[in-house]
Amino acid sequence: MCSNEPLPVEEFVANLQAVGPRYWHDHPFHQRLHQGLLSKHELQSWAANRWYYQRSLPQKDAAILANCPLPHIRRHWLDRITYHDGDRPDTGGTENWLRMAEALGLDRTEVLDERHVLPGVRFAVDAYLTFARTKPWLESVASGLTEMFSPGLMRRRLADMREQYPWIAEDGFAYFTSRLTVIADEGTTTLDLVVEHATTRAQQHAAIAALTFKCDVLRAILDTVDYYS
What we know:
The protein is mostly helical and 229 residues long. The protein has helices at 9-17, 28-35, 40-67, 71-85, 93-103, 108-112, 119-134, 137-143, 150-164, 174-180, 183-197, 201-228. Helices cover 72% and strands 0% of the residues. α8 packs antiparallel against α11 (183-197). One of its GO terms (molecular function) is pyrroloquinoline-quinone synthase activity.
């Protein structure tokens, strides 16, 4: 095969899936979370820092919309912003994450003012936003293929946190319960979109690199929280 020709679809998808071990599912901090070994303070630090990531996701999606010239993809992608921001006040994924933080004993004000966000977390998340704002829209979409790796982890996290931290009110798990209903479909849809539009070998390699970068961003977030908690 000429080096300029695109990889066969099966090989391209396999290369994307091969990035999976870089995902943050087996990070030591996550392992301790699932084993019930985190203190309340560590859980609070995790929630407060991950808030900075969660609240940045609709901004990332808005950057994809701004960079994408295709109306049908923009219409499709708009739903992701609504999912995170909600279609009215006090709804949406970011609101549900705030409820998780409150269930862990944090005051909503101290999460919103980001006083607990560590510099390393801010740096990693800001780098991801810059990526979405400055890279071609297809690369930014491909970075979100971490959705392929997350449904199993999220189901496990919900079950383990309910078992290991029974003091957390059920309302605090709204983020996970609502996310489980959409994430599997989103992962499949995103993969189909990337496969359809990555029509050159260069675009395919860029998509794989984008997914690798996103996994590194996520692990950098946990590295920082793990070190300072």
